[in-house]
Amino acid sequence: MDTKNLAELYDVDTLAWELVAACLDAGVSQAPGTGGPDRHTWWIATINADGSPHVTGIGALWHEGAVWLETGPSTRKARNLARDPRCTLSIALDDVDLVVEGDARRIDDPKVVAELAALWADDGWPCRVDETGTALTAEFSAPSAGPPPWYVYRVDPRRATALQTVEPGGATLFDFGAE
Length: 179
Description:
Structural class: alpha+beta
Shape: globular
């Protein structure tokens, strides 16, 4: 992985990805009262057919070094990802603000879908695998997810920008595609 110190001008050290990963691995609750302001929200930016951006809040998880999200096939973000998988995700954590760039891949492996359903259920959203074994269902989801079924997507980071919001501060660009 290549890194670029974006705060070198201020004589601040390059951040270590391990610091960022530790914040993500600790869990990112989206429940009210668990972050600032009042909670943590993942945001996804996709590309509309006309090339303009589409940004919306999502329910996402960090798991096995990737961001996982779910959405219904009729949503604008799902239609955008089907046409062009490039996306950007962002979140403000307690110690780090993070932007992750990557490609969203729909995951339909029943074992993986079941694993993610269990993780979301453990995080407070009582979803389950639907009758196809390849998507999720539940009595409710975020309005922006559309009606069920909800497909599961994995976004492996291609690049990420982290801004440390506590002392000593810092800003680093991480390029995961570097050899």
